[in-house]
Specification:
By secondary structure, the protein is mainly alpha-helical. The protein has helices at 11-24, 29-35, 41-55, 71-87. α1 (11-24) crosses α3 (41-55) and α2 (29-35) runs antiparallel to α3 (41-55).
C-alpha cells in the first residue's frame, strides 16, 4: 500500500507499492492523487509511478521536493481525473 511506506523505504519497496496501486486499477486514482501530497518522499515516489502507469503521464510531478512545490502538477492530475470521471 502507498500509505504503508515508511520514510526510509528502499527502491524495491517503492516499486512494490507502486505495482500494488497499479493492480488496483483506475478506480484507485483518487488514493494515488492523495498520496502525491504525502509528507513522505517514498510514498510520493510510488504514487508518481502509479499515476504515470494509470494515467499515461505524470503531469510533470516531481516527488523529490516539498509537495507544495508540486501543486501545479497535482492540480493538473486532479483536473484530468475529474474530466475522466465526468465522461463515465
Amino acid at each position: 500500500r502507498l500509505s504503508a511506506l515508511g520514510p526510509q523505504a528502499c527502491d524495491d519497496e517503492i516499486a512494490a507499492a507502486a505495482r500494488a496501486a497499479i493492480r488496483r486499477g483506475i478506480e484507485f486514482v483518487p488514493e494515488v492523487l492523495k498520496a502525491l501530497r504525502s509528507p513522505l518522499a517514498p510514498t510520493r515516489s510510488a504514487a508518481r509511478i502509479a499515476l504515470h502507469a494509470l494515467a499515461g503521464q505524470d503531469f510533470g510531478y516531481d516527488p523529490r521536493p516539498d509537495p507544495a512545490r508540486s501543486s501545479p502538477a497535482i492540480h493538473a492530475a486532479e483536473r484530468w481525473w475529474l474530466s475522466r470521471s465526468r465522461k463515465r
